[in-house]
Design brief:
Layout: H1 3-16, H2 33-38, H3 58-77, E1 81-85, E2 89-91, H4 95-108, E3 115-122, E4 137-138, E5 143-152, H5 153-161, H6 171-178, H7 185-188, E6 198-201, E7 206-208
Parallel strand pairs: 3-6
Antiparallel strand pairs: 1-5, 2-7, 3-5, 4-6
Helix pairs in contact: 3-5
InterPro entries: Collagen_mod_GT25 (IPR050757), Glyco_trans_25 (IPR002654)
Protein name: Glycosyl transferase family 25 domain-containing protein
Pfam family, one: Glyco_transf_25
């Protein structure tokens, strides 16, 4: 949808010396009711956005399906570790070196890990505890955003095994549910197995390229239409 973002990211990858595979996102605006039904997608009963008090938007469904398709590709490929990045991020200085140090620390500490946030929006003020022996990793509380994260093979399998398309909500609500730090008990009840081993880089290594209300800020997800079908019709 936004070729200028892809071009900017390709330039960033070239400068960082990162070999990247571009995956076309699912455009939520193009999702019809028939397509949702064909994919057997069922919206989570009772879900409303906790801040805007609205149902899911089609852009949020597209965003979830984009990440879901990547999780499937990871499982199919057998890759042990991948880095997932959205196309609207800003990299911290020495990003590649810091990611390499993070991976070295994960290995040296022999951590059983599934997902590591590289960027996120913290939603709680409680202190987050550093992993014993670590200078770069904390256990995240309830957080938003899927700007970028490291994902292991086991993490991809867990994200798929919970069958999220059968009780769909936005991806940045789903992930904290699976690592059992979400605050909404009714939503958590839809996913009884919540054993995703999640960590976060601290300090963070990526941030949004632009924030809400900044000049040039565009969100195709937020600007997309709401899903108005009754849950039983999906």
């Amino acid at each position: 949808r936004r070729p200028e973002r892809r071009q900017r990211m390709e330039q960033c990858f070239a400068e960082l010396g990162v070999r990247a595979i571009t995956v076309d996102a699912v455009d939520g605006r193009e999702l019809t009711d028939a397509m949702l039904e064909e994919m057997s997608i069922t919206l989570m009963d009772g879900y409303t956005d906790p801040y805007h008090k609205r149902p899911m938007k089609r852009g949020e469904i597209g965003c979830f399906l984009s990440h879901y398709s990547i999780w499937k590709k990871v499982v199919q490929s057998g890759d042990e570790v991948v880095m997932v990045l959205e196309d609207d991020v800003r990299f911290e200085a020495f990003f590649r070196q810091k990611v390499e140090a993070l991976l070295d620390e994960l290995k040296s500490l022999a951590l059983d890990w599934d997902l590591v946030y590289l960027g996120r929006k913290r939603l709680q003020e409680q202190d987050e505890v550093f992993v014993p022996g670590s200078k770069m990793l904390v256990r995240p509380n309830y957080s938003y955003w899927t700007l970028g994260y490291l994902l292991s093979q086991s993490g991809a399998r867990k994200l798929l095994a919970a069958d999220p398309l059968n009780s769909l909500l936005p991806v940045d609500e789903y992930i904290p549910i699976l690592y059992d730090r979400h605050t909404e008990e009714k939503w958590k009840a839809n996913f009884p197995v919540r054993n995703l081993q999640a960590f976060s880089a601290e300090p963070l290594l990526i941030y949004p390229a632009r924030y809400l209300h900044e000049e040039g800020y565009v969100s195709d997800t937020e600007d997309s239409p709401q899903v108005s079908l009754p849950r039983d019709d999906l």
